[in-house]
Amino acid sequence: MTLMTKGEFAVHRGVGKSAVSNWVKKGLLVMGECPTSGAVKVDVERSEARINTRVDPMRGRPSAGLPLAAPAAVEEGGDQSDGRRSAAHVRADLAEETLASMRRKNAREAGELVPAVEMHRRSAELGRVCRERMLSMFRGISERLAVEKDTRTIMAIGIAEINRVFAELADQVEQGVLTAEDDTPEDPAIENEVAAAELTEA
Questions:
Q1: How far apart are CA 69 and CA 51, in angstroms?
Q2: 26: exposed, middle or buried (C-beta count within 10 Å: 0-12, 13-18, 19+)?
Q3: Helix or strand or coil: residue 72?
């Protein structure tokens, strides 16, 4: 573990101190505790790993939409008590990161992880299944909604049906029985109705 002050880290990265201050605000710096002095400084390797994956190399700014860690609790130059609390926070963060790494390793060895491309495929399939179930549900209650005049009753019917559909989907996903092969093919009639409705709105 290599430790640097924020000023030294700015020189190391070839950026101004304002860029480092921005990284602090965005939670991109990972702090480490010096084993000899107890001082809290920038953990170079962990900070660079986080910055390199979350900062646009062309702009030096955090990429939009990516989750960022909470910013460091204490800036350099803080009082002694805050420094001690910050060091404890750093140790807790390191322990949590180590535990997460061990869990990922164990899950990978147990065959519980799948490639990202497979997760994307499965997510797309689940999205398609959810869409089909929702369209089928609305088709099933359309006549009931058409004759209902009370807005609150219509809302209650819709909410109850939506909750039912998603509860069933959640149960099937948890049981591992919701797959593309098990799902019924898309209903052309439903697709035609949706297309007609979209043309009417346009």
A1: 11
A2: middle
A3: coil
